[in-house]
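## Example record

The block below lists the input lines for one assembly entry, exactly as stored, with component labels intact.
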Amino acid sequence: MSLRAIAVRQPTLILLAAASWAGLLALPVLRHAPNRLLSGHALGLHSLGWPGAFAIAAALVLLGTAFLKPSRQSAWIALVAAAALSIGITVASGFAAITLAIGESDTARTSFGSGTWLVIITGLLAEAEATRRLALKPWARLLIVLATVAGFAIPALLGWLDQLALLREWQAKQETFSIAFWQHGEIVLSALIPTLLIGLPLGFFAHRSARFQKPLLAGLSLIQTIPSIAMFGLLMAPLTALGEAAPWLRDFGICGVGLTPAIIALTLYALLPVVRNTVSGLDSVPFAILDAARGQGLTPTQIFFQVEAPLAAPVLLAGLRITVVQTIGLTAVAALIGAGGLGAIMFQGLFANANDLILLGAIPIVLLAVAADILFRLAADSLRKRTS
Amino acid sequence: MSRLFNRRTLLVAVAASSLALSSLSAFAADAVKVGSKLDPEASLLGNIIVQVLNANGIATENKLQLGATKIVRTALQSGEIDIYPEYTGNGAFFHNVDSDPAWKNLDAGYKKIKELDGKDKLIWLAAAPANNTWAIAVRKDVADANKLKTIDDFAKWVNGGGKVKLAGSAEFVESPAALPAFQSTYGFKLSGDQIVVLAGGDTSVFEKAAAEGTSGVNAAVAYGTDGAIAALGLVSLEDSKGAQIVYAPAPVIREEALAKHPEIEKLLAPVFASLDAPTLQKLNGEISVDGKDAKAVAAAFLKEKGFVK
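Predicted structure tokens for the full assembly:
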């Protein structure tokens, strides 16, 4: 076999595979602590027992595919191996946690070590990379995402992960968690409605008037530079004063803490991507097409709704995607001014020095943002197919 | 895709946003808005207030874990919440009278803040007989080896060249009422390299550093009613000379809310009276060490003591 035959064909994959091997061999796979406040001692790969061997096998296959000639077949193998690696190490950790919990006090906790986190993340990235190579249709990509989610959800539902520290935190806080989860969604949606109601018309006018466009976009960009915690804090004082000056406003929920300042701050941040993309979407409509529409005798309203808006939609959708993802993340900070949401769980964990509680708040925020990103990308892809 | 922009969608959006607004205002004006700070003890006491009121037929609006002291206090003053648990000693800072010796005594401090806040129509209800003040906790092995029981022992040990490294917050180190008060009362001085200042307001961060000996830390700033001290293998040293301000937890309520539901005072008094330091430490420990939900811990406590059936 010549050296060329085993040359690295897929640098991204080999990087990810190598990182996951580093996670498996060099870093602690699990941490076992007498209670949730202490860091506990680190456990290596051997602590996973035979289910760990499954993860190693998947990591071997993944590494192997990096040396294969790039083809659809090798991409599929890499995809399956990467998913099996992420899910496999999670399940193996779950089993190990069950074994460790036997005969231990109820306060003892087993959590993922840095190695397991690295393996899960590199596995998922390798899966995404393989999916990208396959250049699948939107529905097929959605199916792969759903299958991966099921791969994590089914072992969790079967109780195989029940003894992991993250799940223990969830069990203790189920009610608080589900309230916070829906609250988070509610805050994001409540901020999106005013964002669209204000942002779309603003973008439209900015597109029509160049004199209006420059200061508007400059102002909105300036808002982005204000740190979010400062913004939430700054809004408190004037809103509280407003509520005191006109108490009837409080009946509509206008007050210095809670939802009102959160929605105002989030809307202010969300306006830039919406306005900017509305402007550039409308700007991207070729003049010749508008001319032709006018030539056909369409009224300005007809031109806007039947020509400009549909052609600008893909760019606008991209702006909306950025807005939604950004708002999901920023909403976490809103917990500091009493708006609740998943950030409240995160800050609770931060204050109680309980890392797994921080993760219980942070991971769903990440997942929500990723889910929104995937959905908007899929929508944009199917839209592009239809309009082209 | 032009459908995204047609007028019907716009109408639906307007309808949805007005619905969202009206749902915000849907809370009954009569409900007592209960707030709390973010830390475990605050959520415990907040949940206790909510559950006692609910069990006695008083509707509440849950605004627990609203934010840090400044946010919760501002919310109470402006009527965005009606009641929340606060510490008597914080009155020293609310009213800028921290040099007054009254704060170092539970009863005198309580009377003082009741009087000062009463002028602002904020009523302090009966306080718990516990003191969640600044404390210094050391590793048990260090305490045993050097026979440390009180801050006085600690001061002698430090002055005799004891190898101490204390983890704490910037607030503890700088606030004249905290570390400087300990130092002047007991006659010792910690140098810069004997102190590790960590970010974060909660003492469990410092306690964890001492328990695990991170960067050689063997002592931690703690609060009197912390639940994690024993679980982390630390010993809290007694403030035998009373150097610190007393921080007794008590519900503070707006006068107008109390006027609507005067029975709240009598409902909460026996509950807070039962919350002595060992009880609070045990309940706080269930939240911070065992990871139980504050709501469940509050419910179990109220049921066990017979305050709620």
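Residues 186 and 296 of chain B are 41 Å apart (CA to CA). Residues 1-7, 9-13, 17-27 of chain B have pLDDT under 50 and may be disordered.
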